Amino acid sequence: MDIRMVDTITQYEKIRKEIDLSISEVLDSGAYISGPSVSRFKENLGKFLEVPYVIPCANGTDALQIALMALDIEPGDEVITSPFTFVATVEVIALLKAKPVFVDVHPGSFNLDPSKLEAAITPRTKAIVPVHLFGQCADMEPILEISRRHNIPVVEDNAQAIGAIYRFSDGTEKMAGTMGEIGTTSFYPSKNLGAYGDAGAIFTSNKELAEKIHVICNHGSKVKYYHESIGVNSRLDSIQAAILDVKLRYLHQYNAARKQAADTFDSLLSECEGIEVPHRAGNSTHVFHQYTLRITAGREERDRIKNELGAAGIPSMVYYPVALHLQDAYREYGYREGDFPVTEQLTEEVLSLPMHTELDYAQQEYIAQALKRIAATVRQA
Known about the structure:
The chain is an alpha/beta fold. It has 12 helices and 14 strands. The mean pLDDT is 97.
């Protein structure tokens, strides 16, 4: 049985005619940079997210860096985020010579724990970057309350949860990435909304910030060859915009397919001892960028299961094997083992199964049966 961790090929085959036509239109137009397809995608993404300003850019890492630049983050400033995320979240803080300040995560959602946030704030704190990890929103209501109380802007790292919806206590609902001052996302090919190359976007409801972000993306220039500030070169090319605009039409369908696959896994693995299926927060939908289990016996057993799944033709991944505060690149900030116990425990236990829009029941049943058989062998030994 051919099981893939991510299956972009089969997904493409289903919409090949639409994708190929959109690419051909760009090639025929000759407008390869900042062409009509970029404007169209920008408008349609804004409608989807219900946010007035969308600024496409070259990739998700650029999106994060540009967002922090727009907030005037300077050397010595502190930016609070999670130690349990992809490195880009912290990388951009370090690149701007600011200091990443970590707050441990909630053991269920894997997202930044708001109950630990306020203790990390100092007079140097200039931004908070919650990560919507694996497909569901961080608990934004208390995070936003704390940010308002301390007048600290929030940048949402929404690389993994586009289309997720957060529900506030008053019943108000907002899309992931649209609640803070700035939201960012990645359209890396494996994402729920994936390009066929690198791509990203930044969004905001603040007109002044939107204009500033646009200028930063374009070499710090409003008018060609006149540069009012230091910027970067970060543009979404027209072919990727054309691809994304087609796929955006299917995003609700794609997210629904991922949820259905997650529901099936939950059911098939519900009685598998020693394995915890993903927690679903009551105030956020989950779009399952990843389907991430916890193997409660720890790293050695997790790694054994991973290896034996691989031998059975089943791919799996560990997101993430080393917490960011313990990575060699970030040792200079003075964190030590034991500082963030939840994150450190998660790095010992997490294992992500295949998750994409093309999974069928037979594949999932095969995966679940193999996983249960492999997990049971340690108890029989």
